[in-house]
Fold these 4 entries.
Entry 1:
Amino acid sequence: MSLRKILLAVFLTSLTIGIRPARVEAKDYSITSADFQVRLKSNGSADITETRTYQFDGSYSNAYIDFDTKAKCLPLSGACRDYIITNDSVDGYRKSSSSLPNTYYVQDSTGKHSISWHFQALNVSRTFVIRYTINNAIINEQDVSEFYWQLIGDKWDKGVASVTARIILPSPAPDKEIAAFGHGPLNGKVSIPNNQEVTLSASNLSPNTFFEARVIFPKLVYATLAQTGSLTKQQILDQESSYAKKTAVKSAAGFLGGIVIGGLLTIYNLFALGRIIRWLFLWWKFGRDGRLPAVNLADSLHEPPSDLDPILVNALLNPDFKPNPKAITATILDLARRKILKIETIKKPLLLGILPRAPEIIITLTAEKVEMTSLEKDLLEFVGLNLPGSIAVSMIVSELRNHPTKVRTFWEDFPKRVEIKLIKAGLLDRNSHKLQQVFKKELIIFGVFLFISLFAIRFIPTSLFSNRIITTIFIISGILSLLALFIGGLIVQAMDKQTPAGLMAHAQWRAFKNYLKKYSVTKKYPLDSIILWEKYLVYGAALGISVKALAQLPLRDKGSYANSTLYLYTNSGNGGVSGIDSLASNLNTISNSISSVGAVGVGSSGGFSGGGGGGGGGGGGGAS
């Protein structure tokens, strides 16, 4: 294959990268941000405001949040109680059980509290403000008060691109009396900017990952709604220290694993890219096509340059030397020309006795033991004509559409046999084809290793990708993988090389195609021979020229149509070009039916730990 064709393939591929197929009835949503403001009260309660932004792709009318209200503190004499959530509201919405737009509904049950709201959204971004009060949010431990709550639970099927939280204490506290911790995403940040405030944040929170805040501050004295716990401040600090150590070990192991896997991937991909460069050199030396020779000054031939099998003609002029479904149309026409097939047009009765219907085309295999190539026999067997007998074109089309697996299997194997025929005919180079098969196997091995690598990446915590070094390594490795596979795929396609005879045949058939394109439009000069008319029809179909247009080419002696098996008459007397038009339309339907088959103290700051999970709240949510 020529360098120009490879560059064209690169250009066309680059264009299609930005083109995404239209989604049919697709529906999905994402949560771009979730912001929490938590105001802790001196009576032991907490007023929380959630501001959530959703991106809806498709039509949505409902969203909900489920809260896990089961008790999670360590009780003293059974004093630990389930959490109580009250004062629910959604800004701009009224409370109702009607499920109408701009309404919300609250449901409370043992261990669970839910709020859902109704709206209308279609391919739009919407922000919702949800407010509620946790009556017994604060736990009065032995010597400190504690707010320990999962602002986002681990039952959300959707992640959040950006999470922020601002927790305001009931009153300012001394510098050394505030401590704050975050649990869940390892890329989370926690800080204490002043004596009465704690902030937490995280980016790209994964689905089913909780976002938990834990804040300790001076013990509230008159917190009548607070729960009673049994821990001391030191026990809490020791607990958090243990979480932090485990997280540090896990993070270090993950970081090291990420470096090792990323490094091995990069080395492997550099090796693969080196092999690709080697194969590019081999293509330049052994697989690069020469220039097509000039047939004549006009680059046009008035007659088919040879009697080459239409299937091979069809494949020779395709960039990958593989036949397309139009080879079927050409083959059926050619076999009819050679009287191996008989084609009849049968008129259908009028619809409702008034409306005309398109005639049915019947194809009959006249005899089993006739001179046919193996490729022709394969095609006939594929369309259901492996034994003498008749079949309607409409039945062929229906069978192909109803058995896509059969179609796909055939068109995966048949082109390989056509390619072998082109090699045996001396049109494709045997050595370059062998190199192509070797490189194809090597490329498959590259693909298998890439799949294994992608599988291994799954075991690396997503939070590690917030590290720039690891992210950079994997980005470079990914680019190398895609580059190697992309270039390798082009080389595999381009490695087949035409022989000098193949180049000449290609040039001649292209010149004949050029002539047919112009001639089928102008129809200036009648054809002298019915034999030539039939060849125009057969090879024109193989070359992708409209059979309908070619069938209308004039003959100098119109009576000679009668000597052609491709000139059909219907029982009603309709014949001539109209019959051939119907045949062409039906045979093209075969080609079209095949083509349509598919082939993750004050002023201090820190990070999150991976422990925790002992706070109240949690749960999940979603949209529909």
Entry 2:
Amino acid sequence: IEVDAASRTKVDETRELLDNVQYMPSKGRYKVYLIDEVHMFSNHSFNALLKTLEEPPPHVKFLLATTDPQKLPVTIRSRCLQFNLKRIPQQMIESYLDELMSRESVEREPQAIAPIARAAEGSMRDALSLLDQAIAFGGGTLRAEEVATMLGTIEQRQLIEIVQALIQKDGVALLQQVELLAEKAVDFSAVLVELIAQLHQMALIQMVPGIAEERGIDAEWSVLSEQLSPEDLQLFYQIALTGRKDLPMAATLRSGLEMVLLRMLAFQPVTGQAAAVAPVAQRQPKQQPPQRTAAPPTAVTPQAVAAAAPTSASMPTSASISNSSADGGSDSWEQMIPALGLGGLAKQVAQNCLLKQREGLKVVLEIAEKSGSLLNARSEKQIRDALSSHLGGEVNLTFVVANSAQLDTPAARAEQRADDARSEAVNVIQQDADFQSLVSTFDGSVVEGSIEPVTKPN
């Protein structure tokens, strides 16, 4: 005896049903009650059913079917054995629907069956209901385009063209496909879900040999999988997942989908080797300086070093630092700091130091007395590691505190350049005729320290 709980929610109807439980079956040994969508019962109906479930007659069996067992009262669930029915595989649903339409002589397109089986989510009953709707929607036939319209999804052909445009880096074609989707009033969030599902299938094809034949995946997806590198595919999948999460926050669902597709064009995966080499490449000089002839160390004066520094348009390598005494080497140290890739306190410490001496991998840095409080074990280690990486060996680093209160450090030079730029800006303003006219007309005065250069000095 099948009972639809959704249409019999009143307690009186439940009591009427239970009044007949006491009677023996006219055929067979048992009287079986199948109550479908039992979670739709009202609380009073559950209370009426509870007494019968506690002491059921020996000739009665109850089967309670529900898609949401958590909605059943605990008193009901505690008196039942719960069996979680497995979802029917999509391939099995497709095979059954195809066989059914063959028996009924329904004209169909093979690619129209998969979306229905996928939308059923493992339920054969839902699949049959959707199939009936799709046939009625198509006027007695089953067409892929009409099924996609009915379900509010994207048809496979258009999804393939979107992936082809991604592979070919064709932004114009992508936006044209989005425009076609908009004309069909497709749910853009559903499009993104479909794209994620197909990218997953492509990843399976790449990594699991024979999976396409086993799962009946269209051969075109296998061809597309060969045209896309695994790195690009994984990047596209991750961008699509993130885009699905961000889609509700976009100005419109369409613009959100467009941005997800454009990100796939804009970003390219970087291999570990390339990522490791990139910072070093940025530190290397764009143009190698001319080689100098060997000369005694005493022949290179501080003035010569200072004069040569501005002519170099690139960062110095480790060879730029003299292997002997580094007196007067403030220029080289100042140019070397950006190449070390330091940040935070370690960079501030380095900018307040001078390269006092270097012999091989032994480096002595002199720090200004007023900046000595900045130095700690962590920043010292960061500077040592950066120098070791830059010079190609383990560096023995020593810090000494200068006796003088002021050193010509990179930080001091930067501060001096900033002061000079501010002074020049003040002079320019004060000599401006319009400014002088304003001051004279309104009997004004300049607020000290309020004038800043338009561009900050390097």
Entry 3:
Amino acid sequence: MSPTDEGFVVTAISAVDGRSTIECWHLDAPVQISSVPGTDGASNTNLGPVTSLAYTVIPSHFDGGLHNAPCAQFVSFLSGQAVVTIPGTDEEAIIEGGANGLIIAVDTSDVSKEGHRTTYPGDTPTVALQLPFPGGKIPPHKMRKEGVVANNDVVGNDSVAVTGLLALTFGGKGCIDFATDDVSLPGEERGELHLASKVDLAEHTISVL
């Protein structure tokens, strides 16, 4: 892979002075151009290791209530819609499931008193992946601005948002394609990813292709 001058931006639910807040983060992880057969020429960002994977289906018109992030983690909304609001403020993030559905949630109870509220107003279920950071360590980043990632953050500003297939690599020997829920792994690790199941991903990495 050859590095480019582009960067990776993502909406983050963070905390400042004991209160949750919505921010646009610029991750230090570089966006690169793949030279791997099958994705040659596509952009790729190595977002680092994750410890586990939870696949969750949330009913339509569901109210998750006021809560803290259970741990510092990536959350990838594969389908549906999530609306995140911060109590006592007009801060709001509307997250559409799909290519731009990856966010970071780090407003855990030790840094945010009240947390945030998440509702799912769509007429169809919302599918989400939760991917905790090892040891709660937040990826290196810079805060680009307060608020969500906007179109002008990713067009003409040498930055890109999440675009494409989310894949997990297992020591270079297999991957999960979330478009089909098929798991392709060597030998005894082969299986299928089922609703609300967890996959141990210790020592493995997450990439966006």
Entry 4:
Amino acid sequence: MVQEKAAIEAVVAKFEKLQRETKDLGDLLEMADGDASIIDEVITQIPELEKGTRQMEVARMLAGKTDRSDAIVTIHPGTGGVDAQDWAEMLLRMYLRWCEKKGYKTEIVDQQAGEQAGIKGATIHVRGPFAYGYLRAENGVHRLIRISPFDANARRQTAFASLEVVPDLDDDVGEIEIKPEDLQVDTFRAGGKGGQHVNKTESAIRITHIPSGVIVACQAERSQHKNRATAMKMLRGKLYELERQKREAEFQANYGVDKMESGFGSQVRTYTLAPYRLVKDERTEFKTGAVDAVLDGDLDDLIEAYLMKTADQRKKKDEAATAAAQ
């Protein structure tokens, strides 16, 4: 309820701000009375107003049951050796920068440094209105093509890293039942970047959900109790997402609707740095040459294109269900 209230308040505040800016621009235009300098000022402000309107339209699409939730994002390097681990760290930086620009709070709850460069994995907790609603657009495998800085012969290499995004669910979400006997809980010493120990007690937690095989870990806090609570949140989110994807797959099979959303293992985007520079989303066909900006966290256009497409697919899904019920 707290997350939902904060999300609704954020949308209302943005809407009221957009209303004020629209009115102010209208008043300014009325005052222009042929003054070219005022008219020019109005024209320069229109793109920003259009952007705000588009963002409100996108926010309207975030009507899913968990879209208002905070998010838990896990990044894993795939094939590509040290290049993949370096790419995973680049993605971690990209999403941290995006969160910063959105005003979201982030906490790295688990991170393992790579042996030569990059990371072997990381999990971040993202707090803010609609964090999950936006970040679910990033679920899947991200591919990087570049001249490898780790190749003595400067050859072009392809590296992969996967993003797994799940909602941070309130405890009152009753769809997920986790039985204590289904859990294997292990403790270990929390390790920092470079391998040094954050503390000398076994405060880090790893939980394995035996029936599903899902494994989560947290070492952000010095308190084992707090790490366990965070790990359980991660587990609830992953099990909820797995169940949602299962229901979605069953619906698609029954009604012949195209796949709506990206799963944890599907390739979603390619970032090409050589022989040319381009970011292409494989699901929406959205392309941009502003590679550096994207890697610095400018993801809104990519995310919005995906949400627009899934909204259209959701409409088709509803139409298919209605037709089947008749």
